[in-house]
Amino acid sequence: MKTRQQIYNGEGTELLRLITTYHALRYTQVLRFFSRSNEDSIKSLITSLVKQGRIYHDKETDLLCDVPEAAVSPDYGMIAAFWVLLDFKKALVYHTGGDFPIKLHFFSNDESYEVIYASLNQEPLLNHVLENIPCQDASRLVILESESQAAKLAIDGVVAFCIVDKDGAVSYYRKK
Question: How far apart are CA 80 and CA 3, in angstroms?
Fold first, then answer.
C-alpha cells in the first residue's frame, strides 16, 4: 500500500508553500501550477488540507488562502502576477513573493524577473519608488489595468507590459 507521501510526491509541501507565500490564489491557478500531476489527485489533496484546517477555500470567490481573512481582501495584484508566473511555468526554476512595489520574483532558465502591478493612478508613486530601487540584472514585467498607463510610467528594466483579463489570460506588449 502506498503512503500519502508516495501518492502526492511531496506536492502537499509545495502546495502549502505556494498558498503561504502568496496568501490567496484562484483555485484554477493552483490546479494549473500542478498541471504535471493528476488533477483529481491535487483536488483531493486540496480537500484534505482544507479539512485539516491548513488552508482555507472560499467557495464564493473560489480562492485558496492561508487564512480566512485573506479571502476578505485578497491582493488582486498578486493574483494577476501569479497568472504571469504561470506563463513561464515550463521553464520556471524558482519563485517567491516580493515587497511593494514588486509583487513577485522568479527565475526562468537563465533569466531573473520581477513582476510589478500598476494600479490605476498609482503611476507617480511607482515611478518615485522604483527610481530608488535599481534594476539589478532582472527583467521587469509590469501588469497594467489599462494600456494608457504605459505612457505614464518611467521604470528602468521593463521588458514588457501586460494586461491580465478576469480569466487569467495574459496579453504582452513591448515597452514603447
Answer: 36
